[in-house]
Structures
1.
Amino acid sequence: MSESSFHKSPIFENIHDVTFSQYHPGANEEIINFIFDTLPAGVIVLNRKIDIVYSNRQASLFLNRFDLPEEIPSVSRRIFDALDREKFREFFPGEITVTKKFEGSPNTWIFRFAVPAQSPPVIILFISEDKISYKLNVNEIRQQYRLTRRETDILRRVLDGLKNTEISKEFEIVEQTVKDHLSNIYVKIGVENRFDLIRSLVSSPHH
């Protein structure tokens, strides 16, 4: 679609640029909390003391499983020092990231730093996971093996290395329900355990 045809489309004639407060006055905090809690990435806010002053739901789930890498406080102190000396752009000219593998997780975790222009300064830390499930066509797997939506959700977490207790906490269901869903998944895919499940799907052409 060309730029000119886009602007002529009647569907977009009544769309205007507005600020967030204009869009939904009076309920901004509730909407913002919803957005942050449903983000697929963890979000943590660190103050100058390297204390966590905010974490969204995904970040809290991460912190229940792992400690922050020791590099995070070290890099954060260097960032605050550079800000104090007004040399942040000089010392950190590009993207600031830390990657880490954790025992018990098959994936690599990526920590990206962001520094908003405000006083007093804070650091926003975005936490994402290079998940196995991102590399597979899980929707195709769901259709092939006739998995339910909930079974598919459970399967994604299993592929990404979560334990039954962690899955039950995330979905706010009892652990036995997770086990029941897993049993159904094993039967439908034709495997007997977690290891065979992951090996079967990763080695199959679902990419």
Note: The first helix runs from residue 3 to 8.
2.
Amino acid sequence: MSATWLACRSIVSKSSPRVIARQWAPATLSTRKLCGIPFGATLERPLELPDWVSSALLFQSPFVIIASRNNEAIAAIPDGGQIPLDLFSRLPHAIRSIDGTLSGMVDEALKSHGLRRNVTLAVAAGSHVAAVPVQFARAVKAQLDLMVFEPPIDVPAPHVNLYWHSRYDQDRAHLWMRSLIVTTVSELGFPI
């Protein structure tokens, strides 16, 4: 469960205890879900959807690199530093894959440099590194005793959008809920 979702759910439950919030798994947004419930809204990366689905940019989610403090291959690099590009591409990588693919935005950025990475889908431990959204890294860094590094290449920051059925564009309750979500996310300090 994302830090964004937990913060939104916490604020909604305090201000409106009878509102039930449900999080769908990422990349499972279907138009039926937005049609089938009175308040249908979801946080998701940009998607190609029908014209009747409304959306608004909520925040950007730049990548950082996380790794265990016990990773000997990068022990000399200070937390917050940058792993050299050649080393970064040779290290074993973990990837969060919501659709089963073994590549993503980091791979596209590496490809533009003529490089590729070794994705194993293992958790970030030992000698693995992982490119994750900065918000996730901040949320788990202390608890998992991780080091966080800047990517050695420019990786486009994914946008996270708020989607809803356009029939609710002017609905006062829906406007209030969307406003609450936008305010909550802005208070978390996420880049827009």
Note: Helices lie at 3-15, 31-36, 85-90, 105-111, 134-144, 172-187.
3.
Amino acid sequence: MNLLIEGWRPAEVARRLGVSDVSVLRWKRALASKGAEAWRRGRLGKPPKLKERHLLVLRNLLETSCTQHGYSDDRWTYRRLATVLRDLTGLSVHPDHLSRVIRGLNRGGWHPRVTIHGAGQVAMEAPAT
């Protein structure tokens, strides 16, 4: 923060910006330890639960048949994906979150051979012949 660099006291900075003294002291410590890099914005929010190994399992699941995992039909649903992902990796993920994860995978250039339907279903497409 420029005001701290200019020599302002933390209490003055807090008053000027309308934040707590504790926040300004935290900024000051970050500035002392990391310098100007302390102000670069990193990732916001909690770290993601789904690690790369979980995404790999999810990609592999979407490339396989639902029947290979004990289901009677070949229709993936987000609930089924969440259940099988938990069984294989121990990670519990809400089915609604998986829909966002799959859309993110698609934006990243990976396109599984699935079609996402309403009512939270993912149906396997027939292979091109």
Note: Confidence is low (pLDDT under 50) at residues 124-129.
